[in-house]
Amino acid sequence: MKFHLFFFILLFWATILPAKKKYPQYGSLDLRRECRKGNGRCRVECHESEIRIAFCIRPGSHCCLQK
């Protein structure tokens, strides 16, 4: 079991961390701010008069826009 944990940490360190350093622009998008820019609000459930377009920060919250 310890070997598997060590292997997973090594794999994470060798693949994801260099990618974050090489491409910092990916994964740094603040979806909540982008939702507000589009005149929307982050909510768990959209009203009937709103359109759900995307996820905000958490997968359970949606960006709701007025129709």
Automatic annotation (TrEMBL):
Which compartment or compartments is the protein found in? Secreted
Q: Which family does it belong to?
A: Belongs to the beta-defensin family.
Describe the location of the Beta-defensin domain by residue ranges. 34-64
Listed GO cellular component terms? Answer: extracellular space
Leader sequence residues: 1-19
- Could you tell me which Pfam families the record lists for this protein? Defensin_beta_2 (PF13841)
Cited function: Has antibacterial activity.
Query: Which protein is depicted?
Result: Beta-defensin
GO biological process: any one?
defense response to bacterium
Chief subcellular location: secreted
Keyword 4Fe-4S carried by entry: no
UniProt keyword terms in alphabetical order: Antibiotic, Antimicrobial, Defensin, Disulfide bond, Secreted, Signal
MF terms from GO for this chain are:
CCR6 chemokine receptor binding; chemoattractant activity
* Organism superkingdom: Eukaryota
